[in-house]
Amino acid sequence: MGAIVFDLDGTLVDSAPDIAAAANRMLAAFGHPALPQAQLTSFVGHGIPHLVHRIIDACAFDPAMHGDMNARMLVEYEANPADLTRPYPGVVTALEALRDWGHVLGVCTNKNHGLSVQILDALNLSGFFDVVIGGDSLAVKKPDPAPLHAAYAALSAPPLLYVGDSEVDAQTAQNAGLDFALFTLGYRQTPVEDLPHRMAFDHYDALATFVAGMA
């Protein structure tokens, strides 16, 4: 059996509605009208500080405001991180199957560790994972391979697969020299065929079937 590590946002859970709602509450506090959820979703993937940088650029704020805006974004998001966030269809069933087959599971995300655990707890997903590596767990974030290596090092089985949804995840897996499964309904901007992957799937039934065939 092997170790399988998952990204969080856009992979296990659709968190864009909560992220966008928090971002727009933050913008309202600074006197700016709301941005469309689709635009804010396109900023997801490198962690909240990067998302705030993208918002500042999009809204032509003074870059010197980043510290204050980032702090307000964290306050808004931490207050309601899982009100609208939901696991993608088939996630729970697939995780149950993978665990029953003896695989050990982890999460590696650029979201802060505390927020990640808070969301996993709220959605009753924490029990599936033996390790959660967040964007603040190490000095570097994905696509640097170090967070992904740290996740596998904490699991008691050889690396089998990394599962993610984005350009960042594909690059992280490539940098780490690991097989990558691409969830195609997440927050990716690049065509599927342009991202390196071992397999691509749009429902978690297909991931479970693929892993079963790897045994």
What would your notes on this structure say?
This protein has 215 residues and is of the alpha/beta class. 44% of the residues lie in helices and 13% in strands. The strands form 2 sheets. The protein has a 6-stranded parallel β-sheet with strand order 5-4-1-6-7-8, with helices on both faces. A two-stranded antiparallel sheet has the order 2-3. Helix 1 (16-29) crosses helix 4 (66-79), helix 3 (48-59) packs across helix 4 (66-79) and helix 5 runs parallel beside helix 9 (204-214).
Question: How is this fold's topology laid out?
Answer:
Elements (H helix, E strand, L loop, with lengths): L2 E4 L6 E2 L1 H14 L7 H5 L6 H12 L6 H14 L6 E2 L3 H10 L3 E5 L4 H10 L8 E3 L12 H8 L5 E6 L2 H10 L3 E4 L15 E3 L2 H11 L1
Parallel strand pairs: 1-4, 1-6, 4-5, 6-7, 7-8
Antiparallel strand pairs: 2-3
Helix pairs in contact: 1-4, 3-4, 5-9
